[in-house]
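Objective 1.3, modelling of assemblies. Example input:
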Amino acid sequence: MDPIPRRLRSRPFAVVALAFAVVFASAVPTLADATPQALESNTGRLTLMSTTDVHARVLNWDYLADKPYAPARGLGRISTLVNQVRAERGADSTLLIDVGDSIQGTALGSYYANIDSVVDGAKHPVATAMNYMRYDTMTVGNHEFNFGLPVLSEFQKQLDATLLGANVLQHGTSTPAFAPYVIKTINLKGNKPIRVGILGITTPGSALWDRTHVSGKLDFVGGLETARTYVPKMRAAGADVIVAALHTGLGSDSSYGDQLPYPENFGTVVAEEVPGIDVVLAGHSHTNVPQRFVQNKQTGRQVLLSQAGSHGQVLGVIDVGLQKVEGQWQVTETRGSTCRPAASRTTPPWLRWFRRSTKRWSTTSTGP
Ligand SMILES: [Zn+2]
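Predicted structure (tokens):
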């Protein structure tokens, strides 16, 4: 069990700590305070939470083996951790980001694509779960294209979070098929709000792997080229912090060799080559990378890379500290970690609803 790290410049706050110690006795060895942020007029902070490659794990239940996963997985368990971080950091100073590959990977994902399809009006359990958890953005992953565009489109309609994909273009045009980025506002008491730009880019491999679904409909262009295009636009649009939520690994290799003009993986390259990015959230390769720093070649600044494993086993928790210089927020410190939910008997209310609906089609026990 990896505890939630103390946030940047945190202070002990005994009453809150005691309250949480009772509720999350085994989960929280240390607690940050719940004091409103920006006590000093020239500093601010925010926390990013991230998941990636959830692959249709909502309940901690392996439908094929008919037993719980070991180690435990799923958005249900992650949601308890998300609530805990929101309670500790203050919900208004956190953002929740998924880095893609959410709807495919279990019988659950296949069922709601092919049997009781979202295209025919079914409510997608992953969209439902993500809505309950109040995700801000999700980057489209390559496996989102596996069931064809109508299923993805319906999932997108049901999802409250913005589905991002700056390098996925309408075929034969330069028009993005998904929102390239969003800028979220973190309001501070008595201080200038912090504006956080979240850029979503996916691996271009879908052009090859899902050719039957996307050929003649969507084009996929390079991750590095796309980041170079959008980061300056986001800064010009007022982003104080830039988070690149990249459905791609941290390496620079490609499983498809030179069959496509753009590499499959580019997470580290983007951080090194594109000036102005503060945090890279990676995915796709299912690796757990709590924190890694690389230096941007142009600015010399350290860029934080973090990747939250897969299957809802861990939650990425990234603290960002800022200082206001001549009226502008600037990132001064970033710290990343990935946290595993503590064993808990608590079932989130939304998951109780979900378990009832799941029993509609599953004859197996749905487990805790
Ligand atoms: Zn992937």
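The longest helix spans residues 75-89.
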